[in-house]
Amino acid sequence: MMIQRMSILLLISTILALTPVHQALAKDRIEGVWYNQEKSAKIEIYLAKDQKYWGKIIWLKEPMRDGKPKLDDKNQNPSLRQRPILGMAILKRFVKTDEGNYEDGEIYDPKNGKTYSCIIKFANENELNIRGYIGISLIGRTTAWTRAD
Q1: Of the four listed, 6, 10, 11, 58, which is most buried by Cβ atoms within 10 Å?
Q2: What is the pLDDT of the chain when averaged over all its residues?
């Protein structure tokens, strides 16, 4: 009887000890690889060291222009126009506010070189609504990204 109680106590202690580790290793459902709406790029969304969600371009359908990697040549900052688009962070500093909603971030559009405030919401398990805006979210544009992995 005593051995059985000690075994149960040990099991409960082990479960409680491992639970925080499991939670720390568990990924949020937004993490992973997503296609942009045109399916011309794949963006990997990940939890960064700052405990916010970021997204970087990891694949381009057409990564080259004139035999050279595509550059961020539309950037409003001239010193950044020589950086490659592939590998560039385009989603920055998103905070999860509740299940399926991510706010307080920004999105960079390499097609026009502009950065917008942004919110992300799940449309369903395999689709994100990405809304970029200036000022208030009512004035903006929403695109749908689909899960690639």
Answers
A1: 58
A2: 89
142 found inside a domain? yes
Q: How many helices (H) and strands (E) does the chain have?
A: 1, 10
Contact 83, 108 (CB under 8 A): no
Q: Does residue 14 register a pLDDT over 90?
A: no
What is the C-alpha end-to-end distance of the chain, expressed in Å? Answer: 50
For the chain, how many structural domains are there in total?
A: 1
Please indicate, yes or no, if residue 86 is contained in any of the structural domains. yes
pLDDT at position 25: 64
pLDDT value, residue 149: 79
Q: Which residue has the higher pLDDT, 110 or 18?
A: 110
* CA 2/CA 106 separation, integer angstroms: 59
What domain range includes position 123? 27-147
**Exposed/middle/buried for residue 67 (C-beta within 10 Å: 0-12, 13-18, 19+):** exposed
> What CATH number does residue 56 fall under?
2.40.128.520
